[in-house]
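G., the chain you wanted modeled:
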Amino acid sequence: MNNKLIIFPILVSAGLLQARQKPNVVIIFTDDQGYQDVGCYGSPLIQTPYIDQLAAEGMKLTDFYVSASASSALRAGLLTGRLNTKNGVKGVFFPESEGMPAREITLAQALKEQGYATGCFGKWHLGDLKGSLPTDRGFDYYYGIPYNNDMYISPSQQFAEHVTFREGYTLAKAKED
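Predicted structure as tokens:
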């Protein structure tokens, strides 16, 4: 009987501690992905073991609708939770763009207020000038490209200290383009 009384408070305390912990939030947002393009959604051809593991261990959503068909506008809709007629992003931003209006509060900014660490990895496409990049919009970390990989590199583009180029492309080549 005494053993049960000792174990019960420990289990209740563990349950309360777990309830206080914030869940991890990971959003994988891709361009031009079809429903069956990853393994956890049934792809017989494309192997995605790490995404499949995330889906198995977390929550997998089966319906998703974007607020616009253009890359910049749909990203702004996702990050602000507001339709593009309200958040001011109606199309695609090109290099040397101020991007999404500064008055818009992003999901990253809201999560940071709740004590979350935030990161953005991949294509940003919501402005590339100072004040518009992910680290200016609530993200602690950013590793990626500021706009589509088929757009020109603007003359004012700044590069990270340890930028990595592939397939023979170099920093010198990027700066002369």
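The two ends are 78 Å apart (CA to CA).

Shout if anything looks off.
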